[in-house]
């Protein structure tokens, strides 16, 4: 199959929204790993006085991680899938969390404007048509010194990383998703990972798009070598001038 993209991918997520939370709940460490990546933003005072953008929030798992780690931050959660966003917004949230329907490529049209003190993007970049363009948008939305954390399936480059990913997808995820009528989306999931950047390549992509202090950090459990947190910063004016 070819990779799903743009409105076709959003429609597939719309359809899968009803069962998405059930599937991810079966993934050991899924929510704990998101919280770990949120903590890796390194924001002080529980986010007090800070604006945080949750880019590609899905049904709200990443939003929940941010709200737990940064309870005092003003969190704007955005997703391209109306179905996923509806599920997210229907959950119980504190008043400092808001939701907006918009693809990552057209945030300004939906009224999502910076500056943000941090951007969190979970499982987003391998699903956009032009990740470099989205990274440039994120860079522009961040305040000088603002921080980015990307939580993403990015294979470490070993043969075993791809083998484990393929075994999990084809042996567990895809059969269950097919029974639920969402086989195309989860076949896309497998292929989107094996065709996307390796972890080292994605770290280089962040640097090429203007981010500094880039770090690639592993996650534990079966996802070691498969899922990583990437952190980086928009340089301050002084750093840019050097």
TrEMBL record:
GO terms for molecular function: methyltransferase activity. One of its GO terms (biological process) is methylation. It comes from the Bacteria. The keyword Cell inner membrane does not apply. Its EC number is 2.1.1.-. InterPro entries: SAM-dependent_MTases_sf (IPR029063). Keywords: Methyltransferase, Transferase. PANTHER family: TRANS-ACONITATE 2-METHYLTRANSFERASE (PTHR43861:SF1), TRANS-ACONITATE 2-METHYLTRANSFERASE-RELATED (PTHR43861). This is Class I SAM-dependent methyltransferase. The lineage of its organism: Bacteria, Bacillati, Actinomycetota, Actinomycetes, Kitasatosporales.
């Amino acid at each position: 199959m070819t990779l799903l993209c743009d409105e076709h991918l959003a429609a597939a997520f719309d359809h899968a929204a009803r069962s998405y939370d059930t599937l991810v709940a079966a993934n050991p460490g899924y929510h704990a790993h998101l919280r770990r990546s949120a903590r890796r933003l390194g924001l002080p005072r529980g986010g007090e006085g800070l604006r945080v953008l949750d880019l590609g929030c899905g049904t709200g798992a990443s939003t929940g991680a941010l709200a737990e780690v940064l309870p005092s931050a003003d969190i704007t959660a955005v997703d391209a899938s109306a179905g996923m966003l509806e599920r997210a917004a229907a959950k119980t949230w504190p008043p400092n969390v808001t939701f907006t329907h918009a693809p990552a490529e057209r945030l300004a049209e939906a009224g999502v404007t910076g500056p943000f003190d941090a951007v969190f993007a979970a499982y987003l970049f391998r699903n956009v048509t032009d990740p470099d363009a989205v990274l440039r948008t994120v860079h522009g939305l961040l305040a000088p010194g603002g921080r980015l954390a990307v939580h993403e399936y990015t294979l470490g480059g070993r043969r075993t990383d791809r083998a484990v990913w393929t075994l999990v997808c084809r042996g567990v995820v895809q059969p269950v998703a097919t029974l639920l009528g969402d086989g195309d989306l989860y076949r896309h999931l497998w292929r989107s990972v094996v065709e996307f950047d390796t972890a080292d390549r994605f770290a280089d992509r962040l640097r090429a798009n203007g981010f500094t202090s880039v770090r690639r950090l592993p996650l534990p459990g079966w996802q070691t070598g498969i899922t990583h947190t990437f952190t980086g910063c928009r340089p301050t004016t002084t750093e840019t001038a050097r």
